[in-house]
Amino acid sequence: MIERSSYYKWMNRKETDEEKLNHELSQIMLEYHDEFKGILGYRRMTLWINKRNQTHYNKKRIRRLMKMMGISSVIRRKRKGYIKVRPEVTAENVLNRNFEAEKPNTKWLTDVTEFKVIGSPIKIYLSAIIDLYDTSIITHKMSVTNNNQLANETFEEAVKRNPDARPMFHSDRGFQYTNRVFQNKLTTRSMTVSMSRVGRCIDNGPMESFWGTLKSEMYYLTKFHDINILKHEIDQYITFYNEQRYQEKLKGLTPIQYRNQALNQLNI
Questions:
Q1: Cβ neighbours of residue 76 closer than 8 Å, sequence gap 6 or more
Q2: Of 12, 98, 185, 204, whose CB has the highest number of CB atoms within 10 Å?
Q3: How many whole angstroms separate alpha carbon 213 and alpha carbon 74?
Q4: Which of 103, 83, 108 minimizes the C-alpha distance to 194?
Q5: Are 73 and 46 in contact (CB under 8 A)?
Q6: Tens digit of each residue's pLDDT (9 = 90 or more) over 134-172
Q7: CA-CA distance, 62 to 46, in Å (whole number)?
C-alpha cells in the first residue's frame, strides 16, 4: 500500500518533456506499425521516423520504446525443403559467397520461388534478378508454369533495361539455368557464369534473403484466394521494396536511390 498523499502527488504531477517526447514517438510507431503491416523492425522503424520527420533519434531509443509497447516485426517462416534436380550443365561457384559489389551491374543473382493460392491447385512462380551492389530487383516475371521460358524472359528483360551490363551471373543449378540455350545467352553477352554448389543455398544467400523478406512482409500476412490479387500484391511489394523500403546498409536509402546515386556518379 502507498500513502494517499503520495498517490495524489503522482496523479497531479506534470509530464516531463522526455515523457511527452516518448509518448509522441510511441504514437508514431503505432501508426507506422499499422501502415506497414508490422514489417518494420526497430532499425527500419528508426529510418522511417527520421526520414519522414526530419529527426535524428537513435536505434536504442526506438528499440526500447518498441519493446515497451510490444511492437516487433513479423517473424519469417522457415523455408520448406525442395526436390533436388540433377543439373545438365554446371559451372564453378565463382562468386564464392563474395556478396559485395563495388558498382552496379557487376554481380547479378537470380532464382525462382513459388506461391500457393488457397483453394486452387495453381501456383505462381516468381523469377527475379537482383543486383548485389544495391540489392535492387532489376526485373521480375511471373508465370503459372516454372519453365525455361520464365527464366529466359526474366533475363531478356534485365538485359533490355541494362544493355551495357556484363555482370557475373550467379544462379543455382536448376534446370532453367543449366540448359544450353540459357548458357548461350550468358556467353554471348560475355557474362561470367557462376553457380551454387549442390545443396548449398547460402551460396545464393542474398537471393534467398529477398524471398524470405518478400514472403514474411507480404505473402504470409494475408490469405490469398485469388491469383490475380496475389500477382498484383507481388508487383506492389517489389515496387515498395525498390523505391520505398529504406535499408540501413544502403546508408538509409532505398535500393533505387542508392543505385541511381551510383549511376549518376559513374556518368559524370
A1: 212, 213, 215, 216
A2: 204
A3: 10
A4: 108
A5: no
A6: 999 999 999 999 999 999 999 999 999 999 999 999 999
A7: 6
